[in-house]
Amino acid sequence: MYENQVSLKFPKNFLWGGATAANQVEGAWKEDGKGWTIQDCLPYREVGFSDFTKQFAYNSKDLQEALKAGEEANYPKRRAIDFYHHYKEDIKLFAEMGFKVFRMSICWSRIFSDPRDEKPNEKGIAFYEEMFKECKKYGIEPLVTLSHYDPPLALVQDYRGWYSREVIDLFVKYARVCFERFGKYVNYWLTFNEVDAMLRHPVTSGGLIEDMFDDIPFEQAIYQAMHHQMIASAKAVKICHELYPNAQVGCMMTKLCFYPFTCKPEDNLANQQRMRSVYRYVDIQVFGEYPKYLLNEISGKGYHINKEEGDDQILKDGIVDFVSFSYYMTSCMAADTSGLDMAPGNTVNGVKNPYLPSSEWGWQTDPIGLRISLVELYDRYRKPLFIVENGLGAKDKVSEDGKIHDAYRMEYLKDHVKAMSDAINADGVDLIGYTWWGCIDLVSESTRQMSKRYGFIYVDMDDYGNGTMKRIKKDSFDYYKQVIASNGENLDY
């Protein structure tokens, strides 16, 4: 249990809410002109909790199998939780909890059935416009991610993903349409979800499939694709500021937090190097230039980045207004991991920390790590911070009384809210909001399971698509409602 140091207090206009992603909730994968995304092609796989090799392994053969798969095949993102048809019901439940903000993403392939189309798909535009109106009806501020792990399939097949420079202009066209059509509803934008993640899972982050690159080292292709995303993000930031000067555009990172496993200098150096790898691309989005250590890393591997004239200025002209991040857990780093217990985590493995408890999926719960992360980020960037993903995945069970008693989720939330308060009041961090990840149960990204549940709202569906889709309030629903109503000051239950 986290023992807070100062009285619980949050800013008057603090943005409490929840977060989802289009590919994990919408479903309706072929309705109203929506084009294919890579997420429509990722099958359910029964793998071990820590088996990231199998979770993220994907090749051209897998893609061809997905394109030929019939309705009986289990591709969970195709159905998700059918938010596409339930959004009014779900947003009403969010409003009942008292949400001030709802983080969601727009599916690029709903706006442009094919990213090369000149005109957008008006049915896709209409869906998001109605959803934003529904949010505004309840006074909920949308926080919108433009690209959340679901590149259009055409980019994968015809461009080799973000490796192609042409994708920049396609994304900028899409971003401009989003700003022009939805800017009157949206004040907070994010360009790319967990922009640092392409080196960990290049398929969903960058549309890169390794066996399509026989002419270039795959890691070189990833670095090049990352450069193109940096340019695209900077251009989008500038366009949004031109169209809506009061809008705020942020970046979004995976806030991995590591501790040295021992006080050995070698472990501390390994930890420092690991943390630099966490920050490297956010450094570009905040400071408008490549950090020297990243350039050294790339050249040291014998690679190089192909830039066009003007790219450096584009980066400088498109720096972000705030830094948002996901935070779930911490791990340890050791220079030599031989004989050490390893723990699974948020798309990475690390040395297991003997002082921390673990979730059912092996993720080590650490609210103090959230406070440390907030201080590290604010000291480094001096930008407002926004926690846009935090939560606990668990195997919830419906009791005989028809309810879900999830005190473990409430305890997790309580401890992390205390840590946020200390970061704000004791450490002077400028934190503007908090959105719990998977505020309604959704299809997990890393495992593509429904059984790994995060939500305050239970969705009656299993890993194989069986169920009624009925929404049921968990005990944590009323608890979060209480937390929000008291602006984070009443954490008793």
Structure report:
This is Family 1 glycosylhydrolase. InterPro entries: GH, GH_1_N_CS, Glyco_hydro_1, Glyco_hydro_1_AS. One of its GO terms (molecular function) is beta-glucosidase activity. The strands form four sheets. Strands 1-2-3-4-5-7-11-12 form an eight-stranded parallel beta barrel, surrounded by five helices. It has a two-stranded parallel ribbon with strand order 6-8. The chain is of the alpha/beta class and 493 residues long. The chain has one domain: Alpha-Beta Barrel (TIM Barrel), CATH 3.20.20.80. The protein is globular, with a radius of gyration of 21 Å. It contains 17 helices and 14 strands.
Summarize the structure in short.
GO terms for molecular function: beta-glucosidase activity. The chain is of the alpha/beta class and 493 residues long.
